[in-house]
Amino acid sequence: MAKKYWLLLALVLILAGAAGFWLLRVPPEPPQPQTASTTPWGGDYFPNVELISHEGQRLKFFDDVIKDKVVMLNFIYTSCVDSCPLETARLRQVQKLLGDRIGKDVFLYSITIDPDNDTPEILADYAKKFNAGPGWLFLWGTEPDVTQLRKKFGIYESTEDIKANLTDHIISLVIGNQKTGQWIKGSAFDTPQLLATKVGSWLHNWKQPSKVKRDYDEAPDLRHISHGESLFRTRCAACHTIGGGDINDIARGDIGPDLLGVTETRDRDWLVRFLAAPDQLVAEKDPIALELLERYNGLMMPNLRLVPQDIDDLLTYLAEESRRIKNN
């Protein structure tokens, strides 16, 4: 009896060892690609509300707008004279940098928060002013539906509060890859190159290390940038150049005049007033402001809420940079 017991035990141990050896040799199953249902922000998180594009398409937010896509979207209203035009102009620069990738592997969306006034027809006119190309849609939805979306993205504030304190409407830009669940809040004050890199590279290859090996010892010294130059780069460069030409070429996409020598060709007091409150000069029917408005497709310069020191620093930079370019 004891002999049979030991034989049975030996057989069990042999089979267990064989099974363990077999398990070790079987390669583990490759990780399954992440899908909408496996991310924390899938179809059960985002409301699948209906939106209408400026081209007349009826779209479901989750199914048609963001599902399995890399997107850049912001919330605007067309009567905004502050950050909305700046943010839209930044997206336009990203559109130019990424070229024909827009509408293929990167998608741009601008959603109105003022549905009572921003009809799809008005959004279409707004899109035309900014030369929005294929792959960039301006979207209309009911106020409750759009409010839901803004709350889901964590950027909700009542429209009344925004209009009462327009500086609170700066951060409304969101960049994300719905399939991988990667979402980033952005700013209209980011450079277009940084925004294009985020949406065009980081969100596509965030799991893959760069093939280019970099060393901090090889990093170039950073050039000192004055406050005036910083203001120009973050507030003005979305619509203006210094020495890049002053013709409103619709095909090229110019939406603002070239500022080379502007401190010499325009009266300083007028420049100070215009930079402080361009919308006020238009309301007063200032002839120069009205001429610029007509020349550039009715696109008004945003009120950037610049304080006197900002304006002085900006004009100093424009004068110095104009002299540098003319002397080279």
3D structure, described in words:
By secondary structure, the protein is α/β, with parallel strands linked by helices. Helices cover 44% and strands 11% of the residues. The chain has 13 helices and seven strands. It has helices spanning 2-25, 61-66, 83-98, 120-129, 143-152, 159-164, 192-205, 227-236, 262-265, 268-276, 278-283, 287-295, 308-327, and strands spanning 50-53, 58-60, 70-76, 107-112, 136-140, 173-177, 182-186. It has a seven-stranded mixed β-sheet with strand order 2-1-5-4-3-6-7, with helices on both faces. Helix 3 packs across helix 7, helix 8 packs across helix 13 (308-327) and helix 10 (268-276) crosses helix 13. The longest helix has 24 residues, at 2-25. The chain is globular, with a radius of gyration of 27 Å. Mean pLDDT is 83; it is low at 11-37 and 246-251.
Give structural attributes.
13 helices; globular; alpha/beta; 328 residues; 11% strand
Q: Which whole number gives the mean pLDDT?
A: 83
Number of helices: 13
Main β sheet profile: 7 strands, mixed
Q: Which stretches are poorly predicted, pLDDT < 50 over at least 5 residues?
A: 11-37, 246-251
Distance between the termini: 105 Å
Spatial strand arrangement across the major sheet: 2-1-5-4-3-6-7
Write down how many β-strands occur, each being a DSSP E stretch of 2 or more residues.
7
- What's the order of the H and E elements? HEEHEHEHEHHEEHHHHHHH
What overall form do the CA principal axes indicate? Answer: globular
Rg over C-alpha atoms, rounded to the nearest angstrom? 27 Å
Task: Work out the helicity level.
Answer: 40-55%
The assigned structural class equals alpha/beta
What share of residues are in beta strands? 5-15%
